[in-house]
Amino acid sequence: MQFQFxxxxxxxxxxxxxxxxxxxxxxxxxxxxxxxxxxxxxxxTASRDALIALxxxxxxxxxxxxRRVEVSGHFEPKYAVLIDNRILRGVAGYHVVxxxxxxxxxxxxxxxxxxxxxxxSRGTLPTISTPAGTVRIVGMATVPSRRYLELSSKVAxxxxxxxxxxxxxxxxxxxxxxxxxxxxxxxxxxxxxxxWSAPDLGVDMHYGYAFQWFALAAALLxxxxxxxVRKIR
Length: 233
Prior knowledge:
Layout: E1 2-5, H1 9-45, E2 52-53, H2 61-64, E3 68-75, E4 81-88, E5 91-102, E6 108-117, E7 135-142, E8 156-157, E9 160-161, H3 166-172, E10 177-184, H4 203-227, E11 229-232
Parallel strand pairs: 2-3, 4-9, 6-10
Antiparallel strand pairs: 1-11, 3-5, 3-7, 4-5, 5-6, 7-10, 8-9
Helix pairs in contact: 1-4
């Protein structure tokens, strides 16, 4: 018994189109995964880079994001917000985000000062100790993600917010701010905990999607070959 490959026109065209599409999508996901992996490596080595000094001049976020920066100024507690439902070692609490007035200028930069535990009663907010005078802050410059799920329409109750975005803060507080948020690393004896985990950039997700697209391309090719092989008696 012998076999013969007998392709037909339209299934062949559809198969080629499907192969081109799936391979392109697989390569795109692979490229995104490689970009995210390179960024993750850059974040890991950022601690060895020289600190970038922030001034009152507005920076370009892409120039400093995921880089360690330093800035000096005065905290403004009246403009602080508490980001709710932040878990540290299994305990619920808040991230304390407070603007720092840079030097003697009129521009601010938001600083995520760290984590404070929540009280037993939701109506009782933590007391935050804020140093007076000029402080020096060192930390990682970040841009808050806009990808989040909010189950309630009450995204902000007073100074307690579900999530932080720069646009939301600008709409609520009329002060000029830098386009980044600093994750504070240095200790200023304020009782807040600063244990920052590495950001999840989704590297494995992109590689997983790339594998799925390549596997689909392989399955499509196998199906096409099998369906066009005929027995010759």
